[in-house]
Write a structure and sequence with these properties.
With about 100 residues, the chain is α+β, with helices and mostly antiparallel strands. The protein contains two helices and four strands. The radius of gyration is 15 Å and the shape is globular.
């Protein structure tokens, strides 16, 4: 792959990431917000939306609030193996992602 192809690929990946981010409603269901043992990095803002305290470095081994370990994966992997909850912003566009 030459440098022009590589830069085009990287640009496309960044565009896809922005598109995914725009679909998210910040419900945190995929992070365990509705369960009894969510991710320890999950925080709730004053407006009621959730956010990840280590978002830019979230992928990989993480802990739940009770100390259990799990592997945080990109949302594309979550959508591949499990349907999102009914109110999830990815539901309507799951066929596009």
């Amino acid at each position: 792959m030459d440098s022009e192809d590589l830069s085009g690929y990287i640009r496309k990946q960044k565009e896809e990431e922005k598109r995914y981010e725009s679909l998210c409603k910040r419900c945190a269901a995929c992070c365990g917000a509705g369960g009894s043992d969510p991710c320890a990095n999950l925080k709730k803002s004053d407006d009621g939306k959730y956010y990840c305290d280590v978002y830019d470095h979230r992928i990989g081994q993480r802990l739940t609030v009770s100390g259990n370990t799990f592997t945080c994966v990109p949302i594309r992997d979550v959508l591949t193996y499990a349907p999102p909850n009914p109110g999830c912003g990815y539901n309507k566009s799951n066929s596009d992602v």
